[in-house]
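Board notes (copied after class):
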Amino acid sequence: MNKKIWTSPGLQVLVIVLIYFLTGKLGLLWATPPGYASPVWPPAGLGLAALLLWGPNRWPGIFLGSLLINITSTRFAPSDMSQLSLAVAIAMGNTVSLVTADRLIRRFLKFPKAFFIERDCILFLVIAGPFAALISSGLGTLALTLGHQVHSANIFMNWLHWFSGDATGGLLFGPLGLIFSKDSRAFWMRSTKTVILPIFICFALIVGALNFLNSVEDQRSLAEFQKKSDLAYNQIEKSVRTHRAILVTLRSFFANSERVTSQEFQDFAKTLNANNPEIRTLGWIAAPLQGRNSFKSQFVAPPETNKFFLEPQHVFSPEIQNIFQVARTYNNVISLAPIKISQLDPSPLLILAYGHKGGILFAVIRLQELLASTMEIIGDPSYRITIEHTLTDPARPTRMIVDSIARATPDERLHFSPTMTTSHLFTLGNLAWTIHISQDTSLRASSHLHTELFLVSMIIFTFLICAILLSIANGFVRVQEIVKQKTLHLNELNLRLEKASQTKSEFLANMSHEIRTPLNVLLGMADLLEDTPLDKEQRYYIDISKKAGANLLNIVNDILDISKIEAGLLTLEKTEVDIPEITGEVYEMFLPKAQQKDLRLSLQIKDEVKNIYLGDPTRIRQVISNLLSNALKFTEQGHVDILVSENHDPQRPGNLLFEISDSGIGIPEEKLTQLFHPFTQADSTITRKFGGTGLGLSICKRLTTMMGGDITVKSNGLAGSTFSFTLDLPKVRPASEQRLKRKDTERGLSVPLCPTVLKILLVDDTVDNRDLVKAYLRNTAHILIEAENGQEAVRIFKTQPVDLILMDMQMPVMDGVAATEEIRNWEKSHNLRPIPIWALTAYALKEEIEKSLQAGCNLHLVKPIKRLDLLNHLADLTS
């Protein structure tokens, strides 16, 4: 259910809207003029990654996210259709760019298949970065230009900022977005640490470098602005004071002349006005006639452009008449708030007046020309100067009277965005004036070059870093692909080896079963035949047959052991081992053979090793038996000695040392190194004379190595040899002096008696094996019931009670494992007490033994089994 919800198109579109909007807001934190485009625009890369991962039909998420950013990032008025149209146009441009990039990547790169090749990575970066940014920035800048939102001087810079932001965002956040997809990462960037951390470092470097450059640029711009704003203010103040001085000079001219003619006024005014082109008019207004309140100008210079003041019918406004009345009584230059006289000039005009006993001297100044000359001195179009008439009455608003960009187009005035502003206040006569000097640093020509170089360098740097990172990451992917292929090959090989090992195990089990089954009959029948009346010659033949069968059994056991060791199927037990007891048992077992050959067999166990250790008693007994058997086999006269002590040789591993010395035939020195190889003997004639397969010493070496020790041999090549081996067994505790003696030999003196008669179900598909067991039990009171397979045994068990089941494991129709499991399940379902089930089988491998015990058998007896051993087990069961 959750998976279905997360894969729904509606939810995915909503997620894209949220990601685009939130990361877009984050990108706007680093926005800079002009146009306030971000130098790193994360939605460009993340939006493309979303389309690649979820499909191109999720493009409405890109459109809505971009539209939401444009609406919330401006003073949007729902009723302003032009703003809505502009936001829609920008959102469509962003959507078209990402959808186009998605189509190209799917078409040429076959995303996400085979997307870890360097060529595909570079092509992806080109499409996700510069190509997509070229479309979005071009369409976006065009929309802003047509919507009159960008100054014509800033079109290129706005496009460059937009292009660099989208390109950098695509390069950085496109791969970053794809990393978090399991599908694309499986084919592309599996080494996320290799890409994520360096990309964030690259992003931090770009933002840090941008902040540093902006900080340096801001400090330099501030210092330059302070310098030029002071220059502009001083120039304006100087010009106004010069105009005031001209009036003072003109007043002195009138004061020193009894009568001033029009030509004299013109000549003198021309001289004063020569270096001040912003002065439009210099004039003299005579005092009003008796009975009249209005002034009338007498002289103006230059007269050809100031006929307005010469025509008698024109009268100044009451405000001008009032100021002239004040000027007659005010002994200094005064000013009039700038006015517009359309007959003279449409721009604001400043009138300065200076009273005189015969009239008023005045100067008309073009403020726009004053600011223009000041701007020429500054020499920077990014500055703006405004002059305001500051009123003393706080209820009346301050009125701006002149602007240095008043002659610019409405588009230029609209898009002037001051970044720094300073104000200066000064008084002129009876009025106060405020000069505002501001600068839009985005219009400064010198800053464009720095920004262009940084943005271009940033794109190149980002592209190279991402290309290198993706190449490294994809190198890891190629290695992983190779490792994956090798792993698959090794897994296949391992499966084949496991299958071969299983086949070998099955072969060993079958071989063991097939050899031991007839061998069980041969040795069993020989034992039975030995109990019958025989003459001396017949008994001799029986002895030879039993020895041959025993040798054959030893050969089979050796072959199985070496095969299990080589296949890794042999495991060691970890149980308590009584070293003196085990060694003594082996000694007692071989003592009759030594006495038969008239050899002295001795055993010496040092007190230091009379302890209980942790190990595998069966394998320890096997190693001692093999070495002792060889020593007795190859010694015709003399002695065989067994010594058990601690290992004090630091060159040899282990803590226990076993030494078996004999006075036998000896071993040539050049043959010593070959003794422990499989199927190797010192002399080829030994096999013919003494028999054996040459596996015993190899098995001993493997077993001692598995038990943390080693085995060596010493011989002079003439007579006698010493085999020694070490074992590394953890000590548990000292051995008890009163050890229980095993009575197997005493048991063998007579047939054990069973106090209870048992009803035994014998399950075996081989008639000879069944006949052998019947022969073993012929002289006992036990009742024997026969079954040829497991299915028949289950049927008999369910129909009549039995006391014991002897179960063969390998049978047709139903094998012993299945039959045992069915019997146990039937007992459990009927709440019956489990009866003893003994596996009597030729399977001798440990895995087969465990399998029978896990199926429910209580005991696992391996063929060939001796009659006395079987009767002892039955006696133990009934006792």
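Comment from the instructor: Confidence is low (pLDDT under 50) at residues 187-192, 684-692, 738-750. The chain has 26 helices and 22 strands.
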